[in-house]
Amino acid sequence: MKQYYGVYSSNFCNWEQNDKIIAEYIWIDGTGINIRSKSRTLSGTVESISELPDWNFDGSSTQQASTEDSEVTIKPVAIFHDPFRGGDNILVMCATYVWADEERTKLRPANTNFRDFSLPIFEAAEGDHPWFGIEQEYYLFETNNAFTKKLLGWPEGGYPAKEGPYYCSVGASACHGRAIMDAHYRACLAAGVNISGTNAEVMLGQWEFQIGPCEGVTIGDHLWMARYLLGRIGEDFGISISYDPKPIKGDWAGAGCHTNFSTESMRQEGGIKEIYEAIEKLSEKQKEHMELYGEDNEKRLTGKNETCSIEKFTCGVGDRGASIRIPSNVEIEKKGYIEDRRPASNIDPYLVSSILVSTCVAGSEH
Ligand code: ADP
Ligand code: MN
Ligand code: MN
Ligand code: MN
Ligand code: MN
């Protein structure tokens, strides 16, 4: 693994910005999983979204528009501190739009803008205060270019010792990449991303971080910003981040985005009743959910390696082979949340969180 260069502690960071700030505008590109960003100078500090101008970019270079009609508009939706540049500099999560008509009078959401799709669903369920905690699993690949890739800690052209020692591992023979995980953890805290924890995962070179609990649409904003920060941290280590749900075929762990979900009534005394009602509703919508739970998820949800089968909806207390797990302490306390174990690592959290609300929360039919 390459040395951490630590460029951000070098001298140029301390140079005067002369009352200007740098805003890094960040958006999801046309692949629906890769992130793009560019920077601009603004005058003075920024406190709220309304102070930030819209901007645009060349969508023909990001699979979001044609060359002839290339402009994609970006609108700021959430602001975070920029832990790399420090000071009053900011990271700005944006949503993407294209022209809805030939006269260019109206905008509509661009192809991978699922945030706008989710907003009315969350608005209808505002009174239910839906909370989400997403466990983002990912892989670290050593990379010199786009074509040669090797999982961190794996031998050249071969396989490491079989899975067993790597989950929550400690020690150089079983744990690779802790510095990256930790730099990312600190970056999230510094940025104001609601990260709740992290751990080494079942496969060597695989890690997880957890975002949440976040209410409503903010789960998507925070998870996407956490993914951005991880990509940036990886740059400094020469490590690329993969959200492929099953990068290595066979008896090697896939990657998921377990989505923990609750409403106010599930969290209150006796909420277990609402929890079982939600599970009943989910059981009737298996197909609709699986369509939004990530590409290549069928390669991961085999019923092996602590996954459920993609074919069959199941639920169980403390069961890591079920579609929905009820955590043991939730069953004991008779209130809390459920864990949907089906979403893959490459999901769009705006989609997964909003379909959970639309299926489980009464009065938010969409
Ligand atoms: P696991 O035991 O499945 O590995 P983790 O500890 O990795 O679970 O993640 C649990 C996630 O659930 C965390 O992101 C946490 O913030 C979230 N969470 C906790 N309570 C709730 C709740 N009431 N509603 C929604 N999410 C919750
Ligand atoms: Mn240019
Ligand atoms: Mn976890
Ligand atoms: Mn995990
Ligand atoms: Mn989990």
Plain-language structure description:
The protein is of the alpha+beta class and 366 residues long. 25% of the residues lie in helices and 27% in strands. The protein has nine helices and 15 strands. Helix 1 (114-124) packs parallel to helix 9 (349-360). The longest helix has 20 residues, at 218-237. It is globular and about 55 Å long. It catalyses: L-glutamate + NH4(+) + ATP = L-glutamine + ADP + phosphate + H(+). It is an enzyme of class 6 (ligase). Residues 21-102 form the GS beta-grasp domain. One of its GO terms (molecular function) is ATP binding.
Q: Which keywords apply here?
A:
366 residues; 9 helices; glutamine synthetase activity; Glutamine synthetase; 6-stranded mixed β-sheet; 9-stranded mixed β-sheet; binds manganese (II) ion; binds adenosine-5'-diphosphate; alpha+beta
Spatial separation of the terminal alpha carbons: 47 Å
Give the SSE string.
Answer: EEEEEEHEEHEEHEEHHHHEEHEH
Query: What value does the Rg take, in angstroms?
Result: 21 Å
Proportion of residues in extended strands: 25-35%
List unreliable stretches of 5+ residues: 1-5
Shape: globular
pLDDT averaged residue by residue = 93
What does the largest sheet look like? 9 strands, mixed
Give the % helix: 10-25%
Structural class: alpha+beta
The small-molecule ligands in this entry are: adenosine-5'-diphosphate, manganese (II) ion
The number of distinct β-strands equals: 15
Count of alpha/pi helices? 9
